[in-house]
TrEMBL record:
Taxonomic lineage: Bacteria, Pseudomonadati, Pseudomonadota, Gammaproteobacteria, Oceanospirillales
Record function comment: DNA polymerase III is a complex, multichain enzyme responsible for most of the replicative synthesis in bacteria. This DNA polymerase also exhibits 3' to 5' exonuclease activity.
Single annotated GO MF: metal ion binding
Compositionally skewed regions (Pro residues) per UniProt: 414-427, 488-500
Compositionally biased residues, Low complexity: 465-487
EC number: 2.7.7.7
Name of this protein: DNA polymerase III subunit gamma/tau
GO terms, biological process: DNA-templated DNA replication
Amino acid sequence: MSYQVLARKWRPRTFHELVGQDHVRRALVNALDQGRLHHAYLFTGTRGVGKTTLARILAKCLNCTANGRGDDGVTSTPCGQCDSCRSIDEGRFVDLIEVDAASRTKVEDTRELLDNVQYAPTQGRYKVYLIDEVHMLSTHSFNALLKTLEEPPPHVKFLLATTDPQKLPPTVLSRCLQFTLKHMPPERIVGHLTAVLGSEGVDFDESALWLLGKAAEGSMRDAMSLTDQAIAFGQGEVRHADVAAMLGTLDHRHVLALMEAMAEVNAARVLAEVGQLAEQGPDFAAVLDDVTGMLHRLAVAQMVPDALDNAHGDRETLLSLASRFTAEDVQLYYQIGIQGRGDMEHAPDLRAALEMTLLRMLAFRPQGVPQPPKTPLPLSGAPERDGVESHNPSMTQAPEPAGSAMPSSIEPAPAQPPPPAEAPPPWLDSEPTGAPMTNATAGRDASMAEQVMKEERIAEEPPEEAAASPEPVEPETVAAQPMACEPTPSPQPEPAPPTAAPVAEAAGRITHKDWLARFDSLGLGGLTRNLAANCVVEQDDGERLWLRLDPSLAAMQADVHLQRMEQALSSLGFERRLVVEVGPLPESVETPKQQADRLAAQRLAEAVEALTCDPHIQELQKTFGARLIQSTVKPVDAQA
């Protein structure tokens, strides 16, 4: 017996053997069981989704001659054993007239076909006309068919199939019961191929089936044909390497490795992965297409995880990889990839174009490419760490005066006077709540730092007098000198005792009041700022800072946001490890976002009131009937 290809051998012969298209199967089965039969059915969809197969199954249901099928014999479960069923399966049923409209487009062919419509069926119960690719008929052919479609004889059924229903005249569409067949998802194709190859006794790699399911592009018939080809290519087996070589497609694992390098922001590894791809001689434009396609899937995984497809059998891998990217990075990478794909036409070398596009993604990301680590220079007034004094970044650019240089090595116990116990945290200073740091503030910080340095030098200059006297009498001597001309002495700061270190550390703890006061000084932006603005401070033990996040923003959590917030706090002199817990926020506590919204609403209300009370505005309203459009009012910043 000659070999029969898989697409024909495994072609469904009943509705219950049909893979997919459940919406069409359900409608047809119910119509057949209830006897609600239409005279014309139109099946639409792309190639290989089952249009002709459905039509032949429906023809068997209409003409099955098995006993016990009701009054008219029509059934939704044809027996497959009677003469009519076997004749239809073998393509020799007299009353099933199959017409290829692509080869019979002339009106003469259509009229010849319709001349026999009036005659009763010869073998079966109904005379069935199956017209494939019906959209290829000419306008005159449609006109000839239209009258018969409108009033057909009771023993005639029309089954039309097309891949382009838009080309059918509306008059024909309105006289047919239309069913649109869907693309087969890769998961459905892989599942069916697994069952087929298992029954055929063919060894296979599951990853190879995913390649076939992707290459089929929603067509089950194409998938079966490609499987036949893969079996022949692999000498009776279906292996991943063989299928990839047969299809000439890029190994999906290389694209995953490339995206891993992008997640690490590792430009060297990105170029190394491209170099490995170049050894296989791929189409670099197709590589970029695969990268942008994966970026789209990563965006879906971030926003709607349940909607992520499993096109390559890598759903869990992509869900894990999506957590390593920020949403803005994925959107930016996708946009750069789309633009880079268009620029490839003008690039002198496709590999260089791919590399430049990938490097551009890293270069233009909001955080940039990580640079070599540098010595941190935190702001003035921040708590000391490891005995090194903190300086204002605004002061680090200008050279220090000759006499103000600090010693290169400083003892762990500093000799400078401690701040008073009742002093506020370093980042509060004396600025009002929510005020950003200005040039005046930076100048005041510089002056304070210079004053502290002078006091330290004064405290270190007279070590001989301090050593000669067992009592610390120097402060009394310094205070007694101005008593000859001033009634009240000016107190001087005392040297810091060793027991004052815990007091200074306690003063550097972060409270929620501090969080609100200097939130803008953190310099955060994008999604990171939005995340931090919806947090409240719960606790600070000096090493870890606990934040509570609004549950509505729980999906925005990512390690990269926490790292940015920790870096921002470190730039203000607070080395903390952040711990973010999701939960309802206390009603009595205001988040930075709520505070900003409230202040903005207050400024807007004040601006509207100022305009309403302005005599010039009132005169315009009185004279010309003008009215104030409050939605256009924008308060001016007090510092502008």
